[in-house]
Every structure is written in C-alpha cells, then in structure tokens.
Design brief:
Blueprint lengths: L12 E2 L5 E2 L8 E6 L5 H8 L10 E3 L5 E3 L6 E2 L17 E6 L13 H18 L6 E3 H4 L13 H6 L24 H13 L11 H14 L10 H12 L8
Parallel strand pairs: 1-5, 3-7, 3-8, 4-7
Antiparallel strand pairs: 2-6, 4-5
Helix pairs in contact: 5-7
Length: 255
C-alpha cells in the first residue's frame, strides 16, 4: 500500500508505513495515545516506516500541530505491542494509535506545545465521532502496557483533553499524609484495590498481595489520573480517585 485517502479532515499529509495488517474482523473502539520517545519527529517517522522496526501508528502529531497519517484506520497498526485492556489482549486490532512527537521521560518529560495538543484534541474528536468511542476507551499506552511503557506520561494534559470532551476524567482527590498501601501490603484493602483496577480495565488479578505488578499498575493509573505524585503507592488520594472514576463511568448507549 503506497498511498491512500486520509480518514480525517485534520490530516495534513500522508506518509504510508508498510507496517500494518488486518483487524481480524474487529472494529476500532478505542484510542491509544503515545509519545514518540525519540530525539526528533523525523527520527520517529523514519522508524515508524521502517519494515525492520515492525512498529507503526495511524497518526503522528508534530509539535506545530501538523498531523501525518501513516496507516488507514481500517488497518491494524502496530503501536501497542504486548498489551491488555478490559479483557482484550489484541489491543492493536481494536484501537487507533496516535503518536505524539515528544522525547519523553528520558529527555526530562518536556511539555507538549499548545498547537500540538489542540491538534490531538481535534483529531480525537473526529475519531470519537466517527467510531462512537466511549470516554473510558481513550487510553494511554501506559494503561494498556503498564509493565513496559510510561507514555504519554504524567506531563500529558489529560485534564485539558477532558475539558474538550475527550476521555474519562475526574478531579484527583487531594494528596494527604495517610499511610499508603505499598509493596509488602496485603489483605482486604489490597484485594479491593486490585478488584477496582480490574473493573476499570487494567491487567490485574485479585491476589490480596501488593507486589511489583500491583505497584506498576498503580503507577500507570497515577500517570493518567493522579499525576501529582507517581510513586506506585496506593494512598487515600489514589484509592479515592479510582473509586470516583468507577462511579462516574459513562454507560454504553443502548442499541
């Protein structure tokens, strides 16, 4: 596939990547947001189009708000890797991947420019409208791959997107000085935490033991929903914010 028509009116250019496949009969019902984590957008684009790299995305959003489409939405881009969300392990087949040019944590997590975020908002609005994507299905790469990935990170302005009508969000409960659940904790409170994370969609079982995996899941949750402190410890703020999110989950429309 050397060329195709853009799926969205916000697309400024098409650079076709060879890295894609069929959706195996599934339709996209989620968006996964990433940062590129590379020194430049040009380097990221080159890798996303390199057959040897075996990675791609549907859209690449540059710092100036320029949107490049690499893979048609009807095709399965290779952006999520080993991932899981709400019972689905083939996240690539049910999602649209958006890479946002930003060097990421290794470069000190620089802020995302206003023009870039406005372009992400416009693109997401268009995708959501066409595919009827629920707010809780606008996800971070770190949500679906919490044991491998940290992007787009705690510097990403999820609240700003929510105010624009994109994604699921509640105001984080303020951080206090309570004793958190952490590695080595156990019992019913840990079971409750794990159960709520699983209900929301995260890849966790209910063991009652707070080990490395639970800590990484909590960090992923904090990056998205309680970014003021990302430490993998489930304090009252983390716990209560998760409870509020579950209580505020939008319902799927009746067919």
């Amino acid at each position: 596939m050397s060329d195709f028509e853009p799926d969205s009116a916000v697309v400024a250019a098409i650079v076709a990547s060879p890295n894609h496949g069929g959706r195996e009969g599934k339709a996209p019902d989620a968006i996964v947001l990433h940062y590129t984590g590379m020194p430049s957008g040009e380097a990221a684009l080159k890798r996303l189009c390199d057959p040897a790299a075996e990675v791609s995305c549907h859209y690449l959003v540059w710092e100036n708000g320029h949107v490049t489409q690499l893979v048609p939405e009807g095709r399965r881009a290779w952006h999520a890797g080993r991932a899981y969300w709400a019972g689905e392990r083939d996240v690539n087949s049910i999602s649209i991947g958006i890479e946002i040019v930003n060097p990421g944590h290794e470069a000190g997590a620089p802020p995302f420019p206003d023009a870039q975020i406005e372009a992400v908002i416009a693109l997401c609005r268009d995708i959501i409208a066409r595919h009827k994507i629920l707010p809780q299905r606008v996800l971070a790469h770190s949500d679906v791959a919490p044991f491998r990935k940290a992007d787009p990170g705690e510097a990403f302005p999820w609240e700003r997107l929510a105010k624009a009508g994109i994604g699921h969000y509640v105001a984080p409960v303020p951080i206090g000085d309570d004793k958190p659940l952490q590695k080595g904790s156990g019992g019913e409170k840990v079971e409750g935490l794990q159960g709520m994370l699983a209900i929301y969609g995260y890849d966790t079982g209910v063991t009652g033991l707070y080990g490395k995996k639970t800590g990484e899941l909590v960090m992923a949750f904090q990056r998205h929903f309680r970014p003021e402190r990302v430490d993998g410890k489930a304090d009252y703020s983390t716990f209560a914010t998760l409870q509020a999110l579950l209580a505020a989950l939008p319902k799927a429309p009746r067919k």
